[in-house]
Amino acid sequence: MVITAPDGEWAEQITRELIEHKLVARGHQFQIQATYTWQGKTESNAETRVALHTRQELVDQISSYIVERHPYDVPCVIALPILAATDAYHHWVTDVTTRP
Question: Exposed, middle or buried, 50 (CB in 10 Å: 0-12/13-18/19+)?
């Protein structure tokens, strides 16, 4: 899954909460420059993007969790398929996340 956040502190906190609830195995954060249309105007600002590693079965639960807590009116919360992963990494992700 991929989410964007207003800053690294918020992104770190939500990632830790998701890990503690065993909804995700890992989150990678990096700073980005976002350019987008909002309320008819082109906007540009710094954001933090987080790639969350999880099970497909948990996507809806994670999405709801994030949307309830996110400061944006319309947060970016998307799920991308994993086309391939090593067996060891796949097993680790499934071992450390909750079984739906």
Answer: buried
* Token pair of 75 as six digits: 């947060």
Residue-wise over 1-12: b if at least 16 C-beta within 10 A, else e?
Answer: bebbbeeeeebe
Q: Which two three-digit tokens encode residue 85? A: 């992963």
* 36-43: long-range contacts, CB 8 A cutoff, minimum separation 24: none
The pLDDT tens digits of the residues spanning 22-75 come to: 999 999 999 999 999 999 999 999 999 999 999 999 999 999 999 999 999 999
Enumerate domains of the chain plus CATH numbers.
2-96 (3.30.70.120)
Q: Specify whether the CB–CB gap between 58 and 97 falls below 8 A.
A: yes
Q: How far apart are CA 36 and CA 76, in angstroms?
A: 12
pLDDT tens-digit readout, 13-31: 999 999 999 999 999 999 9
Report which secondary-structure segment, H or E, holds 11: helix 8-20
pTM score of the predicted model: 0.93
